[in-house]
Amino acid sequence: MSLLVDKVCVVNGAASTIGRAVADRFAREGAFVIGVDKDDHTVGNHTVRADLTDESQVQAMYDDVVDRYGRLDVIYNNMGLMDRGDQSVLDTSLQTWRTVHDANLTSIFLSCKHGIPHLLNTEPSGGSVINSASFLAAVGSATAPMAYAAAKAGVVQLTRDLGVHLARSKVRVNAVLFGPIETPDQRAVFDRNPGALEKRLVHWPMGRFGTLEEASGTIAFLASDDSGFITATAVPLDGGITEAFTVPE
To answer: What is the mean pLDDT of residues 40-52?
Structure first.
């Protein structure tokens, strides 16, 4: 059985590797996919170019989707940005802090603000919102990009509050705590720092990256009615990293 037959799904941040993988998985599960990104792209049955940190563009995008297709069922917010200037708070500029928070938290706030009303107005009302977060929101790290980690923690709290607030409306809101997923960008981070991957693998219980298939499958499940009793939570997609004290040698 396909999980998302006849559902209209918006994938924000669709031009990224994970965004594209999720859009493809949604389509294979029977969804009609609207891919949204600030860059030119070809993801989805219908493509939109919009700056997801600009409120007027976000509102116009959702209004246009519902005007065209008559309903909205799923929103996947895949927004995220890591900045090389984002390090310890002691060494991070205010501009970097604001840029990282706009990209990772404000964009999701705007998507929820202007997308969720359409979920509520679709007949029958309800649907699923999935927000991209990070395992860094659940742990303390001496080496974390601190603006990014704080923004993703904000995404988790926003998700928790919205999930509880909307629970009786049949709109579910969940987050995914991403760990290391195998993408070219993720690999490049380690390639720039020889030996860094070996040091990190010591702390990864499974000792490997997650796959795009595992990531997109988890998000498709959260988008579907099969996860109908799950809301207001952050699902770890991290191979056990946030639960580990020691790992096998």
So the answer is: 98
The verdict on whether omega for the bond into residue 117 sits within 30 degrees of 0, i.e. cis, is no
Whole-angstrom Cα distance, residue 223 to residue 213?
15
Q: What does the pLDDT average to over 91-119?
A: 97
Please give the torsion angle defined by the CA atoms of residues 73, 222, 105 and 204, in that order, rounded to the nearest 10 degrees: -160
pLDDT at 230: 98
Report the alpha-carbon distance of residue 199 to residue 90 in Å, rounded.
24
Given a cut of 80, is residue 102 above it in pLDDT?
Answer: yes
In one letter, which amino acid is 67? Answer: D
What are residue 129's DSSP bridge partners? 75, 173
**Sequence-distant (≥ 6) Cβ neighbours of residue 246 within 8 angstroms:** none
- For 59, residues 6+ apart whose C-beta sits below 8 A from its C-beta are 114
- Residue 189 is predicted with a pLDDT of 77
- Sheet bearing 74-77, strands edge to edge: 46-49, 32-37, 8-12, 74-77, 127-134, 171-178, 234-237
CATH fold label, 8-237: Rossmann fold (3.40.50)
d(CA 160, CA 9) in angstroms, rounded, equals 21
Catalytic residue status for 76:
no
pLDDT, tens digit (0-9, with 9 covering 90-100), for 203-230? 899 999 999 999 999 999 999 999 999 9
